[in-house]
Amino acid sequence: MAMAFPLIVEPIQVGTRRLPNRIVMGSMHTGLEGEPERFGELARFYADRAKGGAGLIVTGGFSPNHAGRIKDHPCNFDSRETIANHRRITDAVHDQGGCIILQLLHAGRYSYHSAPVAPSPIKSPINRDAPSELSGDDVRQTIADYASSTALALEAGYDGVEIMGSEGYLISQFLATRTNHRMDEWGGDLAARARFPIEVVKATRRELGSTGILSYRISALDLIEGGLNQDEIAWLAKELEDAGADCFMTGIGWHESPIPTIAGVVPHAAFADAAANIKNAVSVPVIASNRINSPDVAEQVLRNSLADMVSMARPFLADADFVNKALSGNQRAINVCIACNQACLDHYFTNEIATCLVNPRAIRELEFNDAPAPKAKKVAVVGAGVAGIACALEAAKRGHAVTLYEQGGQIGGQFILAARIPGKEDYGKAIGSFEHQLDQAGVQTVLNASVSPDELAEQAYDDIVVSTGITPRALDIPGANDPRVVGYKEVLEGSAKVGGQVLIIGGGGIGHDVALFLAHPDDGEADKLAHFKQHWGIEQERSPPAGRRQVTMLKRSDGPFGRTLGKSTGWILRQELRDYGVRQLASVTYLKIDESGLHILNGAENEVLPADTIVVCAGQDANAELVGQLEERGCSVHSIGGARLAGELDAKRAMAEGAAIGNQL
Ligand SMILES: Cc1cc2nc3c(=O)[nH]c(=O)nc-3n(C[C@H](O)[C@H](O)[C@H](O)COP(=O)(O)O)c2cc1C
Ligand code: SF4
Q: Are 350 and 31 contacting, i.e. CB atoms less than 8 angstroms apart?
């Protein structure tokens, strides 16, 4: 049989190492880097990815010294104290035949602690404290620190290091006129500003000798004013190659850049062109990055010669076996990263250990029991939303005979609706993958099944898991039965007709998503990448399109809209809604609906808002009645997801609960 991905599977030489394929697991700070006593958890996490076929693994960022630590908890690798802990990681990866390099990341002015340092004392827009300026001696010491950390990394068994030179961290800060106003040998023209990274690479190369891999993460696009242009970046790459870099991992945008770089609105492989710019300038391998989440897209990047290798970071959280599944012809069962950031990047901001919404095992591998269950049970899972799916998969993995009942004609629950939102199309792909995984796990999925408590009780299941989800709450004011009032479910499913002037009742996550869905211009099959670049002003003036409808969002509570949205994605949604002219009214009281529209109390003023359509996104209630009914019949019952707690719909909690119960049955 012809190999589906002939380019991914091709081995490649990086420095003196021959890697077995073209897929790199990109660097992700997990939150455990500052807790060496927990490196056993990291060891298992990385070992699973090595076992799963990743050609090269890059660790999350470790700082070469204390000043460069990302947060107050010290993730530095600057002493021999933690070598034994790091050894646990490298040994575990090598035992699986993998290759792992340590990323050195000095955060500079992006450090979230009280004494950040930088080339110049210019505060970053995303940090509270202004950095202090590094003296010439400090700069030289910092270069020496990179070298010392490299020596430690080798001693700890790493196969090399990656120098983090992108995303606006210290090295970017030296390179850009925006952040480097120095008048000494480390500032001035590009050659002087580039002296720091070049010296870092030379010093690192000296430590590595000819054996260890030296990857340099280069900012392939800065996406900020006062950053480098494409010619300057190509020049820098050549200089760094001459200084000793073995390959170039690409990085996209600074953290302060007002352009989405990894969220769902970013089309797949949107920035691969920027990798090609570097590939044209150097002769060592170049690695494309960002929003490459399927082997098809990876193969296409390679086929188009935009890069020599492809990095995936979050897709390895979503599926440890990504590469093996792709290369064994089982790509349809790859668990899809939906770019939600909810359990990975957003955890970083809330000081939680990263994991993955669609794969609750990620970085929690040791919490899961992999042994077959002592007794293979007969298990029913009622409701094939994401909670039920996660539960069924985990239970089947332990050897239980699982039947998954779904009332509707398709599995996926709220993911089906989410997939309709612009920028969330990958949710639909994730459902496709779940179908294959359930099938392969031997779960018997029964669609269009309205099972009664009596029928379930009669089947003598050992355990019944209720994952029947939620029902959207109806509006309870006079006139709420007006035909212009519709539910969000009907709107997203397409069964409700929506006019040009729309009111959305509710300012939660669903209200925002529905506002985007309705206001977003219908660009059909248009070139998504060109639209994305035009909208956000990538290498051109920013020119968002006009909204498709006149949309007003309303909520009862006070305060700004969107406070519950994800830390790393909420700003994008808020900006899109502003771009499309969506109006937002907080602290309103809903009075009634009549032919003139929705009557509200806005502050002390009575207002009537005319509307063609009023969409209700005002919360939901748990579908929990089955739990009590089954308990009355003496069944062993568990409830998970929305059925257990409706609240703000939370797929992350739902999948985590489902997986945990499924694993424990
Ligand atoms: C939780 C998380 C932590 C990250 N930490 C780092 C890091 O320490 N160093 C780094 O170079 N990139 C880091 N990144 C960025 C990733 O390497 C990658 O560029 C980004 O996730 C986009 O690629 P992807 O779409 O394949 O995930 C991190 C990303 C995530 C989601
Ligand atoms: S939490 Fe979301 S974005 Fe992060 S890896 Fe998982 S699916 Fe991808």
A: no
The residue among 516, 598, 583 whose CA lies nearest residue 553 is 583
Ligand 1 centroid to residue 39 C-alpha, Å: 19
> What phi and psi values does residue 60 have, to the nearest 5 degrees?
-65, 165
Work out the pLDDT band at 647, boundaries 50, 70, 90. confident
Between the CA of 425 and the centroid of ligand 2 the distance, in Å, is 14
User: Residue 386: CB within 6 Å of ligand 2?
Assistant: no
Q: Structure tokens of 265?
A: 């609105």
Centre of ligand 2 to C-alpha 631, Å, is 36
The finding on whether 316 has its CB within 6 A of some atom of ligand 1 is: no
Q: Taking residues 109-133, what's their average pLDDT? A: 94
Active site residue 110: no
Contact call for residues 596 and 606 (beta carbons, < 8 A): no
C-alpha–C-alpha distance, residues 324 and 235, integer Å: 37
Structure tokens, 318: 């979503």
In one-letter notation, the amino acid at residue 462 is D
The 3-class secondary structure across 435-490, one letter per residue, is HHHHHHHCCEEECCCCCCHHHHHHCCCCEEEECCCEEECCCCCCCCCCCCEEEHHH
Question: Is any ligand 2 atom within 6 A of the Cβ of residue 318?
Answer: yes
User: CA-to-CA distance for 387 and 455, rounded, in angstroms?
Assistant: 22
643 C-beta closer than 6 A to ligand 2: no
Whole-angstrom distance, CA of residue 626 vs CA of residue 605: 45
312: CA distance to ligand 1 center in Å? Answer: 9
Q: What is the pLDDT of residues 269-322, one digit of tens each?
A: 999 999 999 999 999 999 999 999 999 999 999 999 999 999 999 999 999 999
Q: Which two tokens stand for residue 435?
A: 């179908």
The reported pLDDT for the residue numbered 604 is 87
CA of 344 to the centre of ligand 1 (A): 9
Ligand 1 pocket, residue 61 CB under 6 Å? yes
Pairing between β-strand 613-616 and β-strand 620-622 as defined by DSSP bridges: unpaired
- Distance, C-alpha 396 to centroid of its chain: 27
59 neighbors 100 (Cβ within 8 angstroms) = yes
Nearest ligand 1 atom to the CA of 348 is 1
Question: What distance in Å separates the CA atoms of residue 419 and residue 386, rounded to the nearest whole number?
Answer: 13
Atom of ligand 2 at shortest distance to CA of 343? 1
Is the entire prediction scored with pTM above 0.90?
A: yes
**Ligand 2 contact, 361 CB (< 6 A):** no
Structural contact between residues 389 and 660, judged by C-beta atoms closer than 8 angstroms: no
Q: With contact defined as beta carbons under 8 Å apart, do 243 and 214 qualify?
A: no
| Closest by CA position to 367, among listed 663, 590, 572 | 663
Catalytic residue among 46, 110, 158, 169: 169
Residue 356 CB–ligand 2 contact under 6 Å: yes
CA atoms within 13 A of residue 294's CA, in its CB half-sphere: 18
